[in-house]
Amino acid sequence: MSRSDSLLYWQQQQASIQGMMLNPEAEELHHYEQQQIISCLPNLSGNNVLEIGAGIGRYTTYFASEANSVTAVDFNQNFISKNQEINAGFSNISYQCANAINLSFAKEQFDFVFINWLFMYLEDDQVEIIINRITQWLKPNGHFFLRESCITDSKGNPPLKSTASDAQHSHFHSHYRDPQFYLALLGTNFYLVSQGNIKIYEEKYNNPNQLFWLFKKKIN
User: Fold this and answer.
1) Alpha-carbon gap, residue 81 to 93, rounded angstroms
2) With a threshold of 0.85, does the pTM exceed it?
3) What does the DSSP assignment read for 111-144?
4) CB count, 10 Å around CB of 108?
5) How confident is the model over 29-44, as a mean pLDDT?
6) Helix (H) and strand (E) counts in the chain
7) What dihedral do alpha carbons 38, 210, 173, 99 form, nearest 10°?
8) Can you give the C-alpha Rg of the chain in angstroms?
9) What is each CA distance from 157 to 17, 59, 85, in whole angstroms?
10) Any bridge partners for residue 74, and if so which?
11) Domains in the chain, CATH or no CATH each
């Protein structure tokens, strides 16, 4: 799927939790997922946070309530606008409507980078480029949190082949990679602090492959 096709697909989704998670049970999933993920994050007090793929702000609100500043990025202006509406009471959030592959920030600008469900929509070389850039953007000892669908989609279904007939499938042209792909890319410049799986997906769909990792940047 080209970037323009991907953007059009997401622009057709509602600026809602259901539209972002592509699941009619999204409210329940979001509730339990958010609780678990937040419990695994480092202390963000005084941090400058970068959230890539922020969407409507499922996590932006928490970051803004805890951190010094939040930069929320998404390539869908509809999602960004909803995020701004939801978080209008915060003055410490800056928004960018941009494709992740085109982002540019100063070296060692952020203490914490958060990505939740993004890399599966990108090609391998794009993932590598973004990880290399995150390494530059993070301060020494800064943290990077990554969550992805691995092996299967969120409901535990095997991936579909990317063909025209798949276009109505909620996750067509997604890369449900082996988790070792991410661990290998990040192993050079990061320590693995913790890892796990999102329990609500295992409970509801018998899917243990909704995985997350918390990394800490090495000091060279």
Assistant:
1) 13
2) yes
3) EEEEEES-GGGS-HHHHHHHHHHHHHHEEEEEEE
4) 13
5) 94
6) 8, 7
7) 20
8) 16
9) 21, 26, 34
10) 97
11) 3-217 (3.40.50.150)
